[in-house]
Specification:
The protein is α+β, with helices and mostly antiparallel strands. The protein contains six helices and six strands. It has helices at about 1-10, 20-25, 35-55, 60-100, 115-130, 160-165; strands spanning about 135, 145-150, 170-175, 180, 195-205, 210-220. β5 (about 195-205) and β6 form a beta hairpin.
Length: about 230
């Protein structure tokens, strides 16, 4: 009995327990064992224990190294996405503030924390037009940010270069249905409301901050981020 307990307690974490008595007891007589049956039982028991050792040996060094590598890659990807989320949120909040005040000819210094390159130029031009045309978002309202998530949709041929340069690509939506852009008479301007779907291409700038450098935007009936 002690041997059976040892086998079931120490080896049975990996496979079903073999009854040691079945290995050691001569089925012809209840408890008598010949030297031949004892030898056969010992050989069978050794085989069981060797199989147990193989089954319980755990991952190899190469498997551990591979798992460690994949875990590191996953952690780095997750950290990059969290930074991309913060960039998207920061840009959204600042842009909403600027649109509420009616745009600006000179982007605030904080804007350079979130945008760069071609996209920074587009944002500056957009805010200058808003101010020049006396536009603004309807007072006391704010659009809603939906997302972001990592973009896994189809490649867009016109964005091939941006994809090659991007550290990460995300997508999100802005729902301005309840916060449209209005003119000086508080009339909603054409394309001044609704849901916009954005694909943002981000990479590290010289200051090591992750920034949006190219974007694609389209008007949609339903935000695909929630689909």
């Amino acid at each position: 009995m002690p041997s059976r307990v040892l086998l079931c307690g120490g080896v049975l974490g990996c496979f079903a327990c073999h009854d040691v008595r079945e290995l050691l007891v001569d089925h012809g007589s209840s408890m008598r064992m010949s030297s031949r049956s004892m030898r056969a039982g010992a050989i069978a028991l050794a085989a069981v224990m060797m199989s147990s050792m193989v089954a319980c040996s755990g991952p190899s060094a190469s498997e551990k190294a591979s798992a460690s590598f994949h875990n590191s890659v996953s952690a780095a990807r997750d950290a990059l996405f969290e930074e991309a989320k913060a960039t998207n949120q920061g840009f959204f909040d600042l842009e909403e503030s600027l649109l509420l005040q009616g745009g600006t000819q000179t982007p605030p210094p904080d804007m350079s924390r979130f945008v760069m390159g071609e996209f920074a130029d587009d944002v500056s031009e957009h805010n200058a037009i808003v101010q020049r045309e006396s536009l603004r978002t309807r007072p006391d309202t704010k659009a809603a940010l939906i997302g972001p998530r990592i973009y896994t949709g189809p490649d867009k041929p016109e964005m091939a270069d941006a994809r090659e340069q991007a550290s990460i690509i995300i997508e999100s939506c802005t729902d301005s249905t309840s916060s449209p852009i209005v003119d000086r008479n508080n009339h909603v301007v054409e394309n001044g409301g609704g849901i916009a779907h954005h694909i943002f291409f981000l990479r590290k700038d010289v200051d090591n901050n992750l920034k949006i450098f190219v974007s694609w935007t389209g008007k949609v009936e339903t935000c695909p981020v929630t689909a």
